Amino acid sequence: MKILIADDEALSRRLLEKTLERAGYEVITVENGKLAFEELCKPGGPRLALLDWVMPELDGPGVCRAVRVRSEQTYVYMVLLTSKGTKEETVLGLESGADDYLTKPFNAEELRARLRVGERILLLEDRLVEARENMRFRATHDQLTSLLNRGAVMDLLTRELHRSHREQKSTAIILGDVDHFKRVNDTLGHLVGDEVLMEIANRLLGAVRSYDFVGRYGGEEFLVVLNSCDPAFAPSRAEEIRLAISHRPIQTAKGPLGLTMSAGLLLSSEWGIKSLEELLHQVDNALYQAKSAGRDCLRIARPAVRAEPAPAPMPQSVRLRH
Amino acid sequence: MNKEGQVRTEQVWNLAELLDRVDNDQDLLRDLLNIFKEDFPRTMRSLESAVVVADLKNASRLSHTLKGMLSSLGGTRAAAAAAKLEVLASAGETASLKGALDALGHEAECLLPELNAYMAEVRR
Known about the structure:
The structure holds two protein chains of two kinds.
Chain A: E1 2-6, H1 10-22, E2 26-30, H2 33-41, E3 48-52, H3 60-69, E4 77-82, H4 87-95, E5 100-103, H5 108-140, H6 150-166, E6 172-178, H7 181-188, H8 190-207, E7 213-216, E8 221-226, H9 234-246, E9 250-252, E10 255-257, E11 261-267, H10 276-292, E12 298-301
Parallel strand pairs in A: 1-2, 1-3, 3-4, 4-5, 11-12
Antiparallel strand pairs in A: 6-8, 6-11, 7-8, 9-10
Helix pairs in contact in A: 2-3, 7-8, 8-9
Chain B: H1 3-9, H2 15-21, H3 26-52, H4 56-72, H5 76-90, H6 94-123
């Protein structure tokens, strides 16, 4: 584990360095508080620090305060080294953000023991961060496919639509639905159905760029968002993504399955400022048209050019999609 | 015995404590003594200059540095003298600084021969 020693006094620095190297630490030494702060701010920098109280540029408590002001960075466990021993000074040191303090001249065994406390605290922090990240992942991702869930992909789409409008670019929204998926579940069972959905998720992810989004929109419906997508190429890109499902059979526990996907495509630049609900409604209509046209095809949602209003679409609840 | 008397009974150089601190690592001990021999006279000279011009801030900072250096090395009495000087400088006791500096110089004069003797011995 990396540890930072900040001490302006060479003798003390060398003594600490050797003591901690012997204890198995990867030691970084600096001679003033400003350099200490810079080291602690580096990505992958030390998370354990021994800081002398009195240092040029920035003193130990100053380093602690500066480090604690940063947000969204991993916790640094800081021990102040001091020959100051009054209660007031101890309080001041701890109030500055230090986790512990040690009086100079230090006892090697005590120093090592206190650093082990620091390591335990950091381990605990790692576990908490990991648990928080797991919870965040579970809240935003589909449990079966690990794709973004409906809520998360819609949040990202909302942000992306604002951005593309601001930058006068186009976002392509593809809503895909696996054809005859119900038959898979009914004839081969839900476990095979799950295998199919996982493989489709993998293929969709493999077919898009790292900065595009893929989410599970519903049971066998997937929403793909192509950020900053040139409208001239969007239909061919959507078709490539759609064909990623059918170009080879999906291997399942009950043998290979040839499956296809129908899809609707919408280009945000063609629709101007519209609500997310309106755009999703339109791309859903395009998907419905693809299904009506015999499935395994792509249809594009285009704004009506006629003066008279287009007929109201059939309510989603009464549509049958297989 | 008064407090001053107690201080005088302390060792000039607590070698046992230092050996314990360095885990009996003779190479490290030699390193530390070399650093001390280089840094101590220089810091001491700066401190003397600060005391002469009554630069309290620097006198306090430099005596603090010397206190750390001396205590890390087990120079208990000299470290105590440096600590006293630091307190006086921090408190603005300009009139007492020269006397405290002389006391520190005296303790250093007692300590340095012991360090030199040890270094000569380990070189053999």
